[in-house]
Structures are given as structure tokens and as C-alpha cells.
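note to self — DONT lose this again. spent like an hour looking for the file last time. sequence + predicted structure for the chain T wanted, 153 res
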Amino acid sequence: NLGPVWAALGNTAKTKDVYLKSLIINPNLPETHNNLGVLYYNEGNYTASARHFRQSLSYEKDNVRFYNLGLALNKMGKKYEAHSAFVAALAINPYNYKAINEVGLIEMDSGNPEYAAELFRKGLKMNPSDENLKFNLILAEKKWKKVGRRKVR
């Protein structure tokens, strides 16, 4: 498959063409669907991206594909579905600190800053140098103080 070669060279048009042609030959290639999902995501076509991630997951379930689907759904504003995809990623790999961060962000946006802070702390135990988790923990704690540190979950 020449798709990864063209992708490494930065030629997204050729990359997409090769992936689409390979799916004509064999539509049951989970990695090709995942790669197309990434390509469409990077182009900002989140609907096509999510479609290919779902197709990929129909053949092979893994935490990266669920995480990718969650990112696309989140960009589409489908927070509930994105949350479910990130949780599915964590069910397969509970050490996916990036998925933990995304669940924390959704929880914080949903009015659960205490739980979000708990998630960010959990992620930081796995990767203490992650700047996103550090920043998001500070935000969650500030939001938690604003709501009077009441139990929200």
C-alpha cells in the first residue's frame, strides 16, 4: 500500500487516491479505513472521518480507533457519542491518558468539574509531564471553586 508513502511525502491527494483505490479492491481493510479517517480529520471533514473510523471499528476494535472516533465526533459537536467512544477506548486500554483527558474535558463542559479534576489527576499519574492535563486540571479546579466545591457526581 503506497498510501503511507504518499502521506509521508505530504501529498494528501495521492494518499487519498491510493487509499480509496485500495478499498475498491478490498473494502474490508480496517487500517485503510482508519488512515482515511485520519486524513479526512486533518482536512476538517469530520463526518467522513467518523464514517471511516466506524468502518474500521467494524472490522477491528482497538483503543486508538475508538479514540480517533471520539475526536471526530467531538469536533462534530456530538459530545455524548464522543464520550462513549473515549470510554470504549479506555475499556480496552485504561492507560490511554489522552482519552482520559478528553473524557475530563467533556465532563468539565457538562458541569462536572470535580470529576473532571479527578480524571486529569489520574492522567497526570500516567504522564506527569503532559501540559494539556496540567492546564485542564487547573481549569477544572477553578470551575470547581466557582460552584462552591459541591458534589456534582
